């Protein structure tokens, strides 16, 4: 591991030292860019709580707003909610959000952050999405990509901590209306389980990620 990776591992074990009052000297150098972009992650950043992984896994707020507009209405599952960036925006556009995370600290951050944004129509579940029996109209999947050290050259959905193929097959038991949120260097052919729409997601003129839609979420116009 690199010195930065070791720093991350050490810091993540100190939960009391990972939630708020952040400053540059508490982040490894390869994460300083996230600190400088903190108000693009949450416009109300001064009031939110975030753990170390949340810095590089939360969806920037403007992208989360766009996704919420695409997925508005009904009940939506945010299967890997993290510190709640997407959950908050879904709550503004959907009737109900079921927000799930297997990390208790991140889930508590998400609950706090939802309160900061005044969102109340959220059911938070601490658990493993892959093991839960759930019902919803649509599911949003932003699974862990593997951290800041994930393969930057070519991303395979089955290289994630939870195989993307397994996640998709599990989700099909809930609904056909699925959105995958994945890195910009994904292998598109791996996502062609059925009819699909790939949407490039840009921020500040730079391609950041892909939103991959299935079922009735596909824009057919």
Report on this structure.
The protein is of the alpha/beta class. 29% of the residues lie in helices and 18% in strands. It has helices at residues 3-12, 32-36, 38-41, 52-57, 61-70, 85-93, 104-116, 164-171, and strands at residues 75-78, 96-101, 122-126, 138-141, 178-183, 197-203, 206-213. The chain has a seven-stranded mixed beta sheet with strand order 3-2-1-4-5-7-6, sandwiched between helices. α5 (61-70) runs parallel beside α6 (85-93).
Give a summary of the structure in a few sentences.
By secondary structure, the protein is α/β, with parallel strands linked by helices. The chain has helices at residues 3-12, 32-36, 38-41, 52-57, 61-70, 85-93, 104-116, 164-171, and strands spanning 75-78, 96-101, 122-126, 138-141, 178-183, 197-203, 206-213.
Distance from N terminus to C terminus (CA atoms, Å) equals 47 Å
Find the count of extended strands (DSSP E, 2+ residues). Answer: 7
User: How is the quaternary structure best described?
Assistant: single chain
Structural class designation: alpha/beta
Order of helices and strands: HHHHHEHEHEEHEEE
Number of helices: 8
Low-confidence stretches: 1-17
Strand order of the largest sheet: 3-2-1-4-5-7-6
The radius of gyration over CA amounts to 17 Å
Instruction: Report the average pLDDT across residues.
Output: 89
Sheet of most strands: 7 strands, mixed
Write the SSE topology.
Elements: H1 3-12, H2 32-36, H3 38-41, H4 52-57, H5 61-70, E1 75-78, H6 85-93, E2 96-101, H7 104-116, E3 122-126, E4 138-141, H8 164-171, E5 178-183, E6 197-203, E7 206-213
Parallel strand pairs: 1-2, 1-4, 2-3, 4-5
Antiparallel strand pairs: 5-7, 6-7
Helix pairs in contact: 5-6
């Amino acid at each position: 591991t690199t010195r930065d990776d070791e720093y991350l591992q050490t810091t993540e074990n100190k939960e009391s030292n990972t939630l708020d009052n952040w400053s540059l000297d508490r982040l490894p150098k390869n994460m300083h860019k996230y600190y400088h972009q903190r108000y693009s992650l949450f416009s109300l950043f001064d009031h939110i709580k975030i753990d170390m992984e949340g810095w590089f896994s939360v969806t920037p707020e403007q992208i989360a707003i766009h996704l919420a507009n695409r997925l508005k209405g009904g009940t939506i599952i945010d299967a890997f909610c993290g510190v709640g960036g997407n959950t908050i925006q879904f709550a503004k556009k959907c009737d109900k959000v079921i927000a799930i995370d297997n990390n208790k600290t991140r889930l508590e951050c998400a609950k706090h952050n939802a309160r900061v944004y005044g969102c109340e129509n959220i059911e938070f579940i601490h658990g493993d999405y892959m093991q839960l029996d759930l019902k919803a109209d649509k599911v949003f999947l932003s699974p862990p990509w593997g951290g800041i050290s994930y393969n930057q050259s070519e991303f395979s959905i089955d290289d994630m901590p939870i195989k993307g193929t397994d996640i998709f097959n599990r989700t099909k038991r809930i609904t056909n209306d699925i959105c995958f949120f994945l890195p910009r260097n994904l292998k598109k052919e791996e996502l062609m389980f059925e009819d699909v729409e790939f949407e490039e997601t840009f921020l500040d003129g730079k391609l950041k990620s892909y939103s991959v839609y299935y079922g009735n979420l596909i824009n057919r116009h």
